[in-house]
Amino acid sequence: MKNINLRKSLVALSTTALIAGLAVAIPTAARADGPTCSEVAAATKYSARNTQLCTGVDQFGAKYEIAMPKKFNGTLIVWSHGIRKNTNLPKIPVVAPNGYVVDNSPEIAPAPAIATALLKQGFALAGSGVQTQGWNQEEQVLATTIVIDQAITKFPQIDRIAAWGASLGALSTQLLAENNPGLVDAVAPLCLSDSVEANAITYASDALWLTKTLFDPSIKGNGYASGSTGYAQMVTDIGKVLTVFGALSASIQKNPLAPTWPETSTVPATLKGIPVRSAVLLMGLLAGVPTQSRTFDSSSGPKGPLETSFGLVISPSLAVLENAAEAAILAVVATYDLELRAGGVVYDNTQTNWATRLGDDSDVYAAGLTGKTAIAGMLAYLSPLNPAAPRVKADPSAVARVAAYAKIQGNVTVPTITLAGTADHIAQGTQYFIDQYNASVASGKAKPGLLVNIWNKPPDQYTKFTDAGSPIPVDASAPTNGTQHCNFTGSQWLTIAKLLTDSAKSGKAPSSKVVKAAIAKDKNLFTDPNYRGQVHKYRQ
After folding, report:
1. Where are the alpha helices (H) located in 469-540, listed in sequence order?
2. Are the C-beta atoms of residues 400 and 458 closer than 8 Å to each other?
3. CA 424, CA 422: separation in Å to the nearest integer?
């Protein structure tokens, strides 16, 4: 058993360092009372019998929960949730069909059903809602550190601590482990988000800038005003992005081989002679949007004349269309959030060379891009020499503020398990983290054998078609496993939890044999040290 006083000392040191080093303002610390516990609350919320559910608010205003079963096995699992919107939204189709109110509620697991299953196995669970939303990895690390302190103070029988999180919560989880050696015994950063610069400012904002430049220059995209004016600009942009992608989708469905450009586009007639699906595909390739989506596998085709050409020419564009819509909307919300935090424009593409970005994809996707002449014409339109495609210059002071946000370094000190989708259209940070770890091992900053990587891939073919040859959309609420963001099944979450908690107990990462046995019955999961996942174009 790790000495409880040593653990509390680590928490105290970590909390002090985090408060001193936060790059963003946090409320003044105030004394917080301990949590209030209830077995009735646990039974009501998680259907967990013989379990105490303890709730509280930390000294910075973050709500938290701790669930402790009577038949406790010694391991506390601390969860960090993914990014949440930092502003209320009115009713907006797709984005917020019922409206959205900022959510600061605590989470102790990826889903209530996962929490119930783990509590029945004897694990204690904890998690914070964090006092502020948006790009809050630093506040989340602080909130998680405090909830660990509350848990071990209330329940000194805690012997081991395993930490896991998803997306931005995965980034926070890894930061927690790297910056606080000895605080946790094993971690699982799942569907890991990259740094703010790579994920939101470059990847998503590239997709948004290309959408604006090619399809609707009235989209603002950056430089949002303060107060209600800026909020209105942000909401208006979301509506425009949805309108553009709706028009593109309708056009391609109507005439897949030669779809027309949306009316909002102001590109010259020479470009509008190119099927707009090629411009959509180019946008995706330049930004780094996956060419597999929940509906389109970039392989299958309907029976008939398009059976061969659909997978090669049309499917990649439709996949980008599904994926890029969400990436562009992420950019609107994230840019609005980051500009408010940093005090100015944070996106800058003045030095971006789109031709270099495209690279070998110009050959791989030549058919879908309508050939070399079309590619050259579209890239010329995106040139910094074209006044119709103005570049965006960031505010250096705002960029400096964002650059000060904490970043993971790959200095793995405890058993670490990753899980990521091979067609994740939002977060592509896992492979970069693997590369960071390998570099840390090579330089002697990390021990070998501590990192285990598991990948979640979609089936080889999954696109379905009607008898008339039209693709059948997959509902966004039940996307194809292996696509979308953090799209894991209940059994996949629990498989990772089992590997994670076993590692926290043993102090060792699971062996290749153990991992392969754990995932043997799941046709979507695989592990392969030679496989390279996606890396944001920002990193290339």
Report:
1. 490-506, 512-519
2. no
3. 6
Strand 63-69's sheet: what is its strand order?
36-38, 51-57, 63-69, 124-128, 75-80, 160-166, 186-190, 416-421, 451-456, 525-526
Residue 50, both tokens:
């013989």
- Do 185 and 148 touch, CB atoms closer than 8 A? no
| 3-state SS track over 23-37 | CCCCCCCCCCCCCEE
Report the distance separating Cα 527 and Cα 525, nearest Å.
Answer: 7
Task: Give 448-478 pLDDT, tens digit per residue.
Answer: 999 999 999 999 999 999 998 999 999 988 9
Instruction: Copy the structure tokens of residue 403.
Output: 């650059």
Instruction: Extract the residue ranges of the chain whose pLDDT is less than 50.
Output: 1, 23-25
DSSP per residue over 315-340, as a string?
A: HHHHHHHHHHHHHHHHHHHHHHHHHH
Q: What is the dihedral angle through the alpha carbons of 53, 76, 147, 136, rounded to the nearest 10 degrees? A: -110
Would you tell me the crossing angle of helices 276-287 and 371-381 to the nearest 10 degrees? Answer: 70
Using DSSP, state whether 417 is helix, strand or coil.
strand
Q: Which residue has the tokens 């509590």?
A: 119
Cα 109 to Cα 103: distance, rounded to the nearest angstrom: 16
Q: What is the pLDDT of residue 130?
A: 96
CA 512 to centroid of chain Cα atoms: 26
Residue in 349, 354, 352, 357 with CA at minimum distance from that of residue 394: 349
Q: How do the residues of the chain divide into helix, strand and coil, expressed in percent and rounded to 5?
A: 45, 10, 45
Closest CA to 423 of 283, 297, 278: 297
Task: Count Cβ atoms below 10 Å from residue 183 Cβ, excluding itself.
Answer: 21
Token code pair at residue 300:
């299958």
406's CB contacts (< 8 A; 6+ apart) are 21, 23, 137, 138, 141, 175, 179
Length of the chain in residues, anyone?
540
Check the CA dihedral 150-151-155-158 and report its sign.
negative
Phi, psi of 213 (to 5 degrees): -70, -40
Q: How far apart are the first and last CA of the chain?
A: 44
- Nearest-Å Rg of the Cα atoms of the chain is 24
Residues 24, 53: contact at Cβ < 8 Å?
A: no
pTM: 0.92
Which domains can be identified in the chain, with CATH numbers?
Answer: 4-88+110-195+405-539 (3.40.50.1820), 198-401 (no CATH)
Question: Which is it for strands 63-69 and 124-128: parallel, antiparallel or unpaired?
Answer: antiparallel
How many whole angstroms separate alpha carbon 318 and alpha carbon 444?
Answer: 45
Contacts of 317 (CB under 8 A, 6+ apart): 252, 277, 278, 280, 281, 284, 368
Q: Which of 260, 231, 455, 255 is nearest to 333 (CA)?
A: 231
Measure the CA–CA gap between 441 and 277, rounded to whole angstroms. 44
Q: 56-66, pLDDT tens digit by residue? A: 999 999 999 99
Cβ–Cβ under 8 Å, residues 426 and 441: no
